[in-house]
Amino acid sequence: MAVSEYLQRNRERSLEELNEWLRIPSISAKSEHRDDTARAAEWLAGRMRAVGLQTVDVVATAGNPVVVGEWRGAPEGAPTLLVYGHYDVQPPEPLDEWNSPPFEPVVKDGRIYARGSVDDKGQVYLHLKAVEAHLAENGALPVNVVFLVEGEEEVGSPNLGKFLQEHVERLRCDAVMISDTTMFAPGLPSITVGLRGLAYMEVRVQGPATDLHSGAYGGAVVNPALALARILSQLHDADGRITIPGFYDRVRELTQEQRDAIAALPFEEEGLREEVGAPALGGEKGFGSVERIWARPTLDVNGLLSGYTGEGAKTVLPARAMAKVSMRLVPNQDYKEIERVFIDHVKSLAPEGVTVEVEALHGGQPWFAEPEGRLFDAAKRALARAYGRDPVMIREGGSIPIVQSFQETLGAPVVLIGFGLPGENAHAPNEWMSVDNFHQGAEAIAALYEELR
Amino acid sequence: MAVSEYLQRNRERSLEELNEWLRIPSISAKSEHRDDTARAAEWLAGRMRAVGLQTVDVVATAGNPVVVGEWRGAPEGAPTLLVYGHYDVQPPEPLDEWNSPPFEPVVKDGRIYARGSVDDKGQVYLHLKAVEAHLAENGALPVNVVFLVEGEEEVGSPNLGKFLQEHVERLRCDAVMISDTTMFAPGLPSITVGLRGLAYMEVRVQGPATDLHSGAYGGAVVNPALALARILSQLHDADGRITIPGFYDRVRELTQEQRDAIAALPFEEEGLREEVGAPALGGEKGFGSVERIWARPTLDVNGLLSGYTGEGAKTVLPARAMAKVSMRLVPNQDYKEIERVFIDHVKSLAPEGVTVEVEALHGGQPWFAEPEGRLFDAAKRALARAYGRDPVMIREGGSIPIVQSFQETLGAPVVLIGFGLPGENAHAPNEWMSVDNFHQGAEAIAALYEELR
To answer: Which GO terms describe its biological process (chains A, B) (predicted)?
Structure first.
């Protein structure tokens, strides 16, 4: 109880510290924020030292540094937990849709509004608060804890696989814990057992060598923006299925049991529609929204750019058009294979009069784990203690590409316990994290350490 | 001959003056250049006074001012010519494709490189040089000349129609001369007898209320960028014909005589392909490129924007997608009618899950004139004198929306004598005007005044 009381007593300070971290615009996708990512790493290392981790290092990589913090004073035979998270954040654009500046955290209506609040700084920091509470109250933890917090998750963790391999001895653990996901509903603790993979592509269509006057040339020159539109329009059929040959070959279909478990969850299609604010939902025929998001692969356009997009009318026939296209993948699709079939298919759709280039920008494998073993059992009990009800097993539609690497490189099971909530706007304007979940999450993690004793 | 010698003697100074004007970034499409457009108008008025026009006014409108300059000292019975042009220019973007800054004119390889060089400052200024030469050498012109130079041509001349109506007495003339077009080939003087009209639209597709995480929601939410791509892809059929119901109803088909005249022009498809630098040309089936550009209506995408378009990969499911779409129109299409059928058709293509808004940004009617009468005959002789060969009658694919208004409001015939050249990059990076045509154009206009005596 002392640990829990410590956390409650220090809630305000904990939140202030998190806000300090959120003020650092550690955007990994933009090279001009290189210094900010370094600063965010150093900030975290400083806090790790302050709460009493024994060894804290900011380890340089070919990209942004990795922060490693260790506390290894648990009784012999106690398990070692590795806590993985990331301190980098998504770009905040479009800026004019934020109600408050993305890097000036605002606490309002029980939410912390800031880029990175829930994805993933808030969820990383609550683990450190759990450690701090144990060390402050008991001088020790019942388990060994190793933090591994990287700065390139939002760009596909290009350097972490190598890092894991190079530090495999130091990172040896009994389980990996990740909090970078959401709960199914407010107050309903959730363990995530599946994630979708990702193949993120850029399609570039080149028509004429330079922009042309659409009057002087229009009608005789193939318009690259129209060519791109035609290519994109052919990637789904009328049932919302993706038309790329071979795309579904390895898709593991949902079992009837899994579909029944999904149907039993507290979910209303209309609630999701209201949450996203679209006039209607839509997707692959024959599936509900939860199935579509958890267990069906997708193809989305993430960005489009061509010609003149400013104020007013410019009569230009553009030289080129670009689309960012990403596919969410499910077990047992392989993102390298999907990249290949995507590239082949898109190039086969290129009309005469333009050239089409396709580049794979980043990718990650889908993941699914049966929820069993000592860590899962302890996690279930800890969440039940903190939230007063048993957790549900869920999946997420998003990707944490590194989950696979942990399993493969460290040979340890991975458990995903998320403290985000639906509608939290991760990757979108007005990202927020529930203040309650920030605090209850710290309590759940503190309880988990005890359950693992 | 004295007039011609005067022009030759002063070539260097004339070019320097033009460059001074080109340095003013008089971009009408961007409100932040309001002061620059005013400055460009005042600069021209100053030059008109300096060469000896009798009355020069910079007349305020609801938008950018109109410059009016008059010389009315011709013998009784002499005709009055109205010279129309524009001092506003297109936006210079994309800036990184310019070999030299767009508003720092560079003379190189016989070309003046600058935004507005050929469209339309260079072509306006050569008329003033012709007037200057006559006044300097003879103290008088054989005809009355009225300049009318506006600052909103590139945004559809929203205020000029009203201006013409309000100043109809002052602007009364026997013919309107416009130099804002190109010659068919270098050294081949050309009179333009047809222009395409324009209907410029913006299509906005809204899906979810805000940008979403493409992992957390992808598959269950209709992607507005894909919806836009599907709409755009349905606007042409496999033969390159536009599918909008009613679109071709009023199109005047080419006569066999017109097709024969086009076939007789010195034109190679491969030359056009090389000029535009595309891997192949393409367009409506059954027509050659000159026919497609001169006499067939088009539908082009001028701009596309959705989601994340910066460096790297951002996994966003965008809230909205935008396309700028313009249609070039031919006699007897009516741009108001085309706007209506476009809006109706595009809205009818909106899939469930998104809302579609369509806005008409600007438009203008197509134009065609039989090349006959006193002014045309004099223009043919003057061009033959300046270039040593008879001019050809051509059309242009671009639009000068105000041409119709001149005919209707002033009741005067319009003659278009262009001194641009193919490949001049009007509306594109590295716009240029031929130095020779700037000087020969002034000679041709000076000769025209004599031919009209």
So the answer is: proteolysis
